[in-house]
Each structure stands twice: as C-alpha cells, then as structure tokens.
Design goal:
The structure holds 2 protein chains of 2 kinds. Chain A is an alpha/beta fold. Chain A is 33% helix and 28% strand. In chain A, α4 packs across α5 and α5 runs parallel beside α6. The radius of gyration of chain A is 17 Å and the shape is globular. Chain B folds into 2 domains: 188 residues, no CATH class; 102 residues, 2-Layer Sandwich (Alpha-Beta Plaits), CATH 3.30.70. Chain B has 11 helices and 4 strands; from the N terminus they run ααβαβααβααβαααα. The chains are: A alpha/beta, B alpha+beta.
Chain lengths: 225, 304
C-alpha cells in the first residue's frame, strides 16, 4: 500500500534520505529503527505530505504523495493517523474534546461526533477519562488520547513517531500493545522508534535506517544497531 | 461548506476575538477612529456642497449705472452683454424699483427709511442697475472683467460681484477633501498595521491548534477563516459603534449646523439618507480593510 521508490531528500547539504526504496503492505506492522537523525522522522514527514522529496516517488494506494496538490493534502491526512513523541494535545480541552476536535475540523456532523468519540475512547481504554484535561492525565494516558485522535478518521495507516519516547517502560509497553491491537483490527502501523527492547519484543518486520539509507530489512526482525 | 462547519468557523473566530480581548479592543478602537474620520469628512463635505448649492442662486453681478447714462445706452449695453458667452440672464432694475426694494429690505429701520424718503422721486439717489446671472460660477470673473473693461467702464459707477463667496466655499470644500483624504490615508495604513499585528499575535497564540488542525486534516481555508472572521468582527463592531455615535451627533446637532450653514432643508430625510450613506461606506470600507489586513497576516505568518 505504501511504496517508496528511489526517494532522496536533502536539507541544504545534509542528506536526510538517500535513494530509499521500501514497500509496506496492507495490514503490516513495521518498526522503523535507527539513531536520532538517521532519517526516520523525515520518512514520516514525506508520507504525510509535510515535506516533498527532492527526487523519487512515494505512492500511497497509487496516489503519488510527492506530487499531490497542496489542497489535497488535508484529505490525504484524513486517511493517515499520526502520533508524535510530544503528543500535541490541546491543553485547554478535555480528552473528549481533543478527540472530537479532529472530527470537527474535517466537517463531521455533531451527532456522528457524539457517537464515534466514546467508541474510540473505549477502544484506547480511556472512556472514564473523557472529561479529564491533559494536565490531569499521565503521560501514557495522554498518548492514548493522541492515538484515539489519530484514529477518529478510521485511517488506513497509523504513523507513530517515537510515541514512547517520553514514557516509562510500563506505559511504553502499554502503548505498543495498543498499536498492535489497532494493527490487528486492520490498520497498517509504522512505528518509528529507537526503543530497542520494545522492537525486539514485538517480533514484526523491522527496517533499520542509518545515515539516510536502509541498511537492514527483516521480517520478524530485531533492533541490531 | 455546510452549516455545521460555518457555525464552527464563526465560533472559532469569536474565540479568537475574546481570548485576546484587550488586543481586540485596541484593534476595534483604531478602526473606529478611522471610520469616525471618514464619517466626519463625509458629513462636512455633504454639508458644504449643500450649502454651495443653496447659495448658488443668490450669486450674481450687480452693475450700477452712472446717472447720466441714457435709456438707449442701457438698451445697447444690455444687448451687447447678452450676446456674451456665459451670460444667462440680465435683469434691468430701474432706480424706482431699486428704491422699492430698498424700502422693503429696510422696513424695520426708520432712520434709513426717513433718509430715503427725504428725496423726491426725481432725486432718487439709487442708481439704475443690471442684475446679471451667469450659466456657470466660473463665468463670473470673465463677465466682471468685461464690465470693467474700457468698452463698458464709463457706463458704470460700481460693479459688485459676490461670486467670490462661492469661490471661498469651493476652496473650503477642496481643503476638506484634501485634508480628509490625507487623514484617511494615514489612518487606513495605521489601522491595517494594527489589525495585521493583532491577527499575527492570534496566529502565534493559536499555533499549537493550527498545527494540530493541519495534522488531523483540516483544509487550509478551515484554518484561515477564523482569522478572517476575527478581523471582520473588528470591522463590524467598529462600524456599529461609529454608526451609533454618528447617528446621535447628526440628529442632535442638525439644527445648529443647519442654521450655521443657512440650510433650510436639513430635514429628516436628508439626514437619514446621509446616515445610511455613512453607515454603508463605513461597513464596506472596514470590511475591506479587515479582509486585507487578515489576508496579509495569514499569508505572512500562517504556515499551512
């Protein structure tokens, strides 16, 4: 469903990605590993149309993201959920409102918001935190809300960029379990991380990036760097 | 765009306005000042123009004949002057009529009446005269100089041309127009800058929200609209405030202003028309300024 075809991306003289070719299949769970600055985040930015490659093609279900019109990017992003290390919740809104926000901005009707948000909160196991503000929740809970928000559009693909970076190991493990559950329900998941233990315990496909190049691509792989 | 979305956009715009209430008040105030200046200029300009129209009819040249000029000469002069370009009408006012007019004008001044009545009809000191009207105000100076030229100078003892008054009024209107445009230009620039800056700050304050909106797939216009709505709120609120102030001032001061400019017909309909004109100019110009300022700020600072 996602295909990187000889993709190169540079920032000035710094080469972030160099001739990267990669294919990710539907329903796959892929861990993208590598040290900071290896190119993981660049790869994610390219998928959501945040950045454009210098050369090469990035196909998502036959749509070339590298050449997509700017006005079409919002619609692309409704098909892709994204979760970040710094969570990015709105501080002055409750958990419920944060999730509803994503539906509001894409023009969903009020009654479908009222119907869907509780379901998604239940899925991430936080139905009892609906009225809590971000400062009243733990790091793990906040990240679950961010995941819930990423899921409201029922995306075909979920991108998680270091989602456990700020969490302790128990919370981190919970988040990974949640991502696995989401994957099991039929959403393709790309997990960019440098959390070695987590990747190793997942036992799914692992793609290792180093200095902008893919150096290893293993089914049921391990973090080897 | 459906109704739910429009509703959300307006709500977001109002939130922008309320969250930075002091900045919003400042932006609205500066907009109101600009609108007030525009309104004042419209009022002044309308009133002076009205007043010019009003006294235009009273403008004319009075040319007083020397006593020894004969009736035949007067006839000839009249014919000659009537042939002149720009002359619309020449009315001959014989000295008898002049005396009657004098008596009518000064009927409450017994001393003057007594003096004039001292003279017998044959001794009437008031001269024969022409009352000359021109087609256009600009024609008067030409006619006056013709009357004073060698050809005619010997017939007349005095030429009175009151078109100078109008000239002065024209100069005043012109000055109002120039000063007004200058002030309006300055305040428009200041207003756009203040609004631009206010919206820039709102964009800065809402940067997290904007970022999340982008990530969850809000369209660019969905992100932009609340900032434009915020500017429109400044515009409409300022128009409303200035509208109320202008309305009150117009109707409270109308009598005094009417008397001052000797306008009899400064009635309700005229004021009403003037008020609606001012209101629509204010709304239109403020909305335009708001849109320009917000689009500039969005273009410059909103990364989407």
């Amino acid at each position: 469903m996602i295909k990187f075809d000889e993709v190169t991306k540079t920032y000035g003289k710094v080469i972030a990605l160099k001739n990267v070719s990669l294919e990710i299949h539907k329903d796959e769970f892929l861990s993208l590993v590598g040290q900071s600055g290896a190119g993981k985040s660049t790869l994610i930015s390219l998928i959501i149309g945040e950045e454009r490659p210098d050369s090469g093609r990035i196909l998502i279900d036959d749509i070339d993201v590298a050449r997509i019109r700017r006005t079409d990017i919002p619609f692309l992003r409704r098909k892709i959920g994204v979760v970040f290390q710094d969570i990015k919740l709105l501080r002055n809104r409750t958990a419920y409102e944060n999730v509803a926000f994503a539906m509001e901005v894409s023009g969903e009707k009020n009654n479908s918001i009222r119907k869907e948000v509780p379901k998604i909160l239940e899925m991430v196991g936080l139905e009892d935190k609906a009225k809590a503000f971000p400062h009243e929740m733990s790091g793990g809970e906040k990240q679950r809300i961010a995941i819930a928000r990423a899921l409201v559009h029922k995306p075909v693909l979920l991108l998680a960029d270091e989602p456990t970076g700020n969490l302790d190991s128990i919370n981190a493990w919970d988040i990974i379990q949640l991502l696995l559950k989401i994957n099991k329900n039929g959403t393709t998941v790309i997990l960019a991380t440098h959390a070695k233990d987590l990747v190793n315990s997942v036992k799914k496909r692992v793609v290792t990036i180093e200095k902008g190049e893919i150096v290893l691509d293993q089914q049921k792989g391990k973090y080897v760097l | 765009m459906n109704l739910v979305t429009v509703n959300r956009l307006i709500r977001n715009g109002v939130t922008n306005f309320v969250r930075n209430i002091w900045l919003s008040i400042a932006a609205t105030s500066i907009m109101a000042i600009t609108l007030f200046i525009i309104s004042t200029i419209i009022v002044l300009y309308t009133l002076t123009t009205l007043s010019i129209d009003n006294i235009k009819d009273k403008v004319g040249i009075s040319a007083y004949f020397n006593n020894q000029v004969t009736d035949l000469e007067i006839q000839n002069v009249k014919q000659e002057l009537e042939a002149m370009a720009g002359v619309k009408q020449i009315e001959f006012i014989p000295k008898t009529v002049a005396k009657e007019k004098f008596i009518a004008t000064h009927k409450d001044e017994p001393l003057l009446l007594e003096t004039i009545n001292e003279f017998r009809d044959s001794e009437n000191p008031l001269p024969n005269s022409f009352a000359i009207k021109a087609y256009d105000l600009t024609d008067y100076s030409g006619i006056t100089s013709t009357l004073k030229s060698e050809r005619f100078a010997s017939y007349f003892q005095k030429i009175r041309d009151n078109s100078k008054v109008i000239d002065r009024l024209f100069k005043i209107t012109d000055a109002i127009k120039k000063l007004g445009l200058f002030l309006v230009a300055i305040f428009i620039v200041v207003t756009v800058m203040v609004m631009f800056n206010t919206i820039r700050l709102t964009i800065y304050n809402r940067r997290d929200e904007v970022e999340i909106m982008r990530l969850v797939g809000a369209t660019n216009w969905y992100i932009r609209w609340p900032f434009i709505i915020e500017a429109l709120l400044y515009a409409l609120l300022a128009s409303l405030v200035v509208g109320i102030v202008v309305f009150a001032l117009l109707f409270l001061l109308s009598n005094k202003v009417g008397a001052f400019l000797s306008l009899q017909d400064l009635g309700g309909t005229l004021l009403e028309a003037l008020f609606w004109k001012i209101l629509s100019v204010n709304v239109l110009s403020s909305v335009m300024l708001g849109i320009i300022a917000s689009l500039f700020a969005i273009r410059r600072y909103l990364r989407i």
